[in-house]
């Protein structure tokens, strides 16, 4: 049967609604009103009369009611395009045809309504924020009407035409089914097979709509599958007597077979398994009479077909689970819904059936070995109940202790022993990470085992194992995805089945996954901190740098592809590959960050590692140049690495012939840098280093010496070499400065900012020594630092700002004399985009404000309170940070500037910018926390502002800040709150209760709950002060 076109009745679809179609279905399905006797023949007549009456009533309604005119037009359009017979002398088929036509009308109308639906954007600030309901959605009562119509179609149009043994007979279902079986006239045209084919094809057509398909398949899948089995696979006569006896063409039979396989793939697989088992039937039954006969045995062709289809279900992914669920779901009621013993017996019979099904190899499998290889791994997964303990605490503890004794205590690095531990290293590291989350007596054992095996392995295998620990190598074994570690009662660990993740918990599961990966990398850093002496930590760090170079060579522009809706499957796979590469890049950066934080200056233990480090840096710089991705950080990193080579060539390390042989690995990279790098200074230095290495240090240019001297920071702030300091620190300079340079280089590779940036000593932060006195800063030094504050190199500028801040903090006379110029420098650097620069500027302005609050504080308040036209929102936020630090630094002296500070922050709470409002409230909280009793005169203004913001502000961040101010206020005042806030304490309490009850944001609720707890503690101590056991001694006059 050809599916009706969606365009059919397009004009009718414009006005024909769901209500008229469902009303027509109700009219067609309405029960008869005549009285029926007790005789069976009377019930047959009543059914036939009711069907005829409902058909006539429907036709009259369609002809006479003007409201149903469009419905009649749509039905006629679909009926004219249909290629299946609709009229018959058999009233049951006429009734079924009309019901099928109305169902097709319903499907077309729902598709049209959904296509025209264009919901507006919901207003998220109103209670009606839920998305608009699609107009093709059926209500509960409408779904019941459709279900009734489907029940009639299946009962009258499918079940009566199934041959004996196919499906469950109508007589075995209900009394009404027995009546229908007798009423249907199989001799009247159209042929029974044609009726069955038409009913099944139309139902499958209706099921293409998602909501209608769920209504059809959830209750009638078995009957439709039985009909398709009969239509597609039932044997026909080999040589028909007449051509017209061939009811179905071969093409229609092929379509039926394809439709059967399609619906078997679409539906819930346990449902498909259960229905196929019902169709296949059981062993033959002895039938003595009609009353005891349940059903005929399924024909041989159907049993073979169901067996083949069941085998296909079993061989699919998760097929064992589908078979188990299909058989066991609904078990437990017993054979007749009786006692518990009957229920248990029925369950065991079903389990026995499952075992027989799984144990028998299907014919589709190539061999029994292949079958069992595919099926056996699925069996444990299908039996995993969440919470079941797989490995007890005692078993796991004993296992770890035995491994520790055999490997660590025995300390025999035999190849067989070492290789036997490799497959479980990933699981052992996961266990070690879990023990780091809490107290466990097996943590030290796991750590010692891991350190022992990493020290005994070959370096390549050790690096490969560390890659697996970090998540860079997915082939390294780990704990099964369905299992998890759990803390046990005696301080040990046990292994259990993981709880299933619900749809509502997907965000929480993602958060747990990201947190777990972060903790895993950090624990790896802690483990590598113990592997520095053997050189493993340095080798792994260099490996991470090389990985970063590889990912840097990939073109970032590849991610800018078309949107998902216009992508093909190949493009989606390519996009997924790019996303995985980006994930790997982020993981490498995270690893480098953790290693730079965890490792000490003794990371590199030999010159080979230092050369590998420099080579990785040069390769990354060349890769960035090839992709035209040069940046300031890349340029600085390249300068630092080449300076490190100059340090080694300048005598910081005693180089022998073997050392120069290692350094020669850098010659091709230095040559490439000298050819392609745009900076002429770096080009010249690369050429000079190339010459120096090639001549084994026999020839060295002045540029190499200057670079080495600048890198080692041999110059003091005044530019003179002090012989005593040089003699006392000579050995330290040769080693520790080189190590310090390496640690700074690691920070540069990951884009991190070091606390002591590596820059020439002329612009470095002054050292605070015991013999340093105020006034030691000279005018030349100050001028040099002032010039460095405008240097385009970010580390140089930031270090200069930090130096100025330190001089202000030490109250250096020369620096304080230029306070206005320094303030101008700091304020200009507040506009800088680099975090290290503007944070250094913020620190400097805060120190100046602490030193000269009368001159600077009011200007900062005016800048903070200015419009967005004068200063950007980012600058105002940075000034707000300065004010917060100033308030903290002033301490009790802040009371002198109470009025301008409070008024500025209160005005900021009404600023149009939500970020500025939140910043003002945060500063207000810091201020109120330190005012104590001086807050009394403005407490009403502050309280009114907080109440208004917490109740009416539209931005959640601002409401959070307002509630947080109350927390800080109560926490700062403590027991003084009952005196300072006595007039507004009740209002604040009501506000907090309002937030807890009505605030939609969980964070704001948490702040309010914390404030209520603070208030509760304050009031308890006020009402019930602690008893002090003291004795007063009074001296009488």
Automatic annotation (TrEMBL):
UniProt feature coiled coil, ranges: none
Region (Disordered): 713-777
Bias (Polar residues): 766-777
GO-annotated biological processes: protein secretion
Pfam family of the protein (one): TANGO6_N
InterPro entries reported in the protein's UniProt record: ARM-like, ARM-type_fold, HEAT_TANGO6, Rtp1_C1, Rtp1_C2, TANGO6/Rtp1, TANGO6_N
Membership in a protein family: Belongs to the Tango6 family.
Domain TANGO6 HEAT repeat, residue spans: 314-379, 384-533
Name listed for the protein in its UniProt record: Transport and Golgi organization protein 6 homolog
Highest taxon of the lineage: Eukaryota
Biased composition (Basic and acidic residues): 731-748
Domain TANGO6 N-terminal: 16-313
